[in-house]
Each structure stands twice: as C-alpha cells, then as structure tokens.
Amino acid sequence: MTRKQKKQVKAALQILASLGLPRAQQNERSALCLLAMLDLKPGAAWSTAVQPLIGVTPIMDWAREHYAKDYAANTRETVRRQTLHQFVAAGLALYNPDKPDRPVNSPQAVYKIEPAALALVRTFESEEWHAKLTAYLSERETLAARYANERDQNRIPVEIAPGKRITLSPGQHSELIKAIVDDFAPRFAPGSALIYVGDTGDKWGYFDASLLANLGVEVGSHGKMPDVVLHYRAKNWLLLVESVTSHGPVNAKRHDELEKLFANSKLGLVYVTAFPNRATMSRYLCDIAWETEVWVADAPSHLIHFNGERFLGPYT
C-alpha cells in the first residue's frame, strides 16, 4: 500500500476501535469495508464521506481498485459473516434499506452506512469529533458491550462527560474505575479529557483512539492498555491508571510494559495505581514501582508518592 492508503486504513481502524467494534473486527478487512461503504479513496477528507448502496462483491472490487487489496472470490462469505454482519448488529450499517423484504442471502443484498454513523464519521479529524463521539456512544450501546451480554440494570454507569455516560460490567473492579473517573480525576487532574476506560466484560469499554492519535500517541493493538487513560490538559500529561482489586498494580514489570506501550508519547507519563481501600493496598506495598503514584478510593483527597526525595519537605 502507498502512504496515503495506509494512513486512511489506520484512520478507519481508529474509528472502529472508538465505536467499540470487537477486536475480531478491528482489522484491515473491516477497515477497507468501512472505507468502501463511505466511498473514501486514499487522501480523501472524512468530511466528504457518502453512503452508497453497495454489495459484498462491489466492496471487494472497490478495495482492489483503490487500495490494491486483491480478495479471492471465496473471501466473500468471510467479509459478509465476519465484518458486515457485525456492522449491521452494531447499528453502523443498514442491511437492504432499499428493499427490506429482500430474501436473506440474496445475491442482490446491499448495505449502507446508517445516517447517524455517517454524520459522526464525517467529523473525524475535526474539532467536533470528540464531542460527537461521546454523544453517539451515550445513545448507543457498543457492539462489544452487547457481546458481553450484561443486563443494563446490572451495569455500572460512568459519566464520561457532563450528561454523557457509558456502562461497565458489574463488579468491584468497575466500581473502582468509576471512582477513578468520578473522584480521582476531578481532584488531581481537573479538566482532564478521558481517553480510555477498560471493562472486564469488554476491554474497549470506551476508547477515543482519535484523541490519543492527535496527541501524537499510537498504541498497538497487541499492547495491554491500563484501566484508565486521562489527558491532563493543564500539565500536558497522560495519566495511566491501573484499577487494582485483586491483582495488577504498577509494579516494575508493568511500569516497563506501559513505558514501552507509550514510548512514542511526547507528553509526560504519570503512572498511578488505584486501590479501593488501604487494606487492599497493604497486600501490594512490596510490589509497587518507584516513581509512581498510589490513590486509595476510601481516602480520595490524598495521594501516596513513591517518588523518593522529590516530595521531601515540611507540611504547613
């Protein structure tokens, strides 16, 4: 692929991740399907996206013509079953909108990007994207969350922006993540932007991949993200927070993993381990890495600094 082709595919992958598509659909095949359904050729602006009616074979032909991706004829069912089916289930695409009574698996079957999704992707790489993404996700449960098969009334709501929220799988781990967003962030990183929230039932509970990319950070899909990532605008820091209820503090090994995962970041990296209470923290004191921070949810106004002499001095 050319540089322009690769850049457009990478952007499409960021959108799929941000929309909560499962990992099985965060791949080149799905990215090319999305681009074909938006008729976005290499170098085209996202604001120019359209919504043609298009079938599986025309999608594959389009990918061959514009992105030099030559799919074999027997790939048709893979494209339909492993990408387009999930696009429809996620509400990203409409199936046979021109003739809803068309027989299932008809060779004339066509797909079309759903209007609200089209309006959203047209704002990608613009100043509107982050606000539009938050609003879009607040109104639609992501497909990945749907696959987690959790009942809404049992899920834990987390406000990701004023009046906008997502829900996480029930459990102590998610309760602590909620506390990180609701209590830790406003106290120690006021005005910060939420980039990522993990979920035990869905690794990509909320991920604004575009915002992270705009900050000059590209995170490979093979890396294990921290539970919460915040951009502290006032300091231009990235806060990488691990929520620990039964395992997983920022020890020396995890510190090294995160350092490598965010190696191309030009922002300051702050490593934080969050515990629900001091009793849980006490079990991990010997493991916590130096040059990191510790926050305990039942004492939310305090931080514990494992930072040596930087903070040595009298209190007034």
- CATH architectural designation of the largest domain: 3-Layer(aba) Sandwich
Number of strands: 11
The secondary structure category is alpha+beta
Contiguous runs where pLDDT drops below 50 for at least 5 residues: none
**What's the total helix number?**
11
Task: Briefly say what this structure is.
This protein is an alpha+beta fold and 316 residues long. The chain contains eleven helices and eleven strands.
Explain what this protein looks like in three dimensions.
This protein has 316 residues and is α+β, with helices and mostly antiparallel strands. Helices cover 36% and strands 17% of the residues. The protein has 2 domains: 3-121, Orthogonal Bundle (Arc Repressor Mutant, subunit A); 149-311, BsuBI/PstI restriction endonuclease, C-terminal domain (Trna Endonuclease, Chain: A, domain 1). Strand 9 (268-275), helix 11 and strand 10 (292-296) form a beta-alpha-beta unit. The chain is elongated.
Task: Draw up the topology in text.
Elements: H1 3-18, H2 28-38, H3 56-67, H4 76-89, E1 93-95, E2 111-113, H5 115-121, H6 129-139, H7 143-147, E3 156-161, E4 164-168, H8 172-188, E5 193-197, E6 206-207, H9 209-214, E7 228-232, E8 237-243, H10 252-261, E9 268-275, H11 278-282, E10 292-296, E11 303-306
Parallel strand pairs: 8-9, 9-10
Antiparallel strand pairs: 1-2, 3-4, 5-6, 5-7, 7-8, 10-11
Helix pairs in contact: 1-2, 2-3, 5-6
Labels describing this entry:
alpha+beta, Arc Repressor Mutant, subunit A, 2 domains, 11 strands, elongated, 316 residues, seven-stranded mixed β-sheet, two-stranded antiparallel ribbon, Trna Endonuclease, Chain: A, domain 1
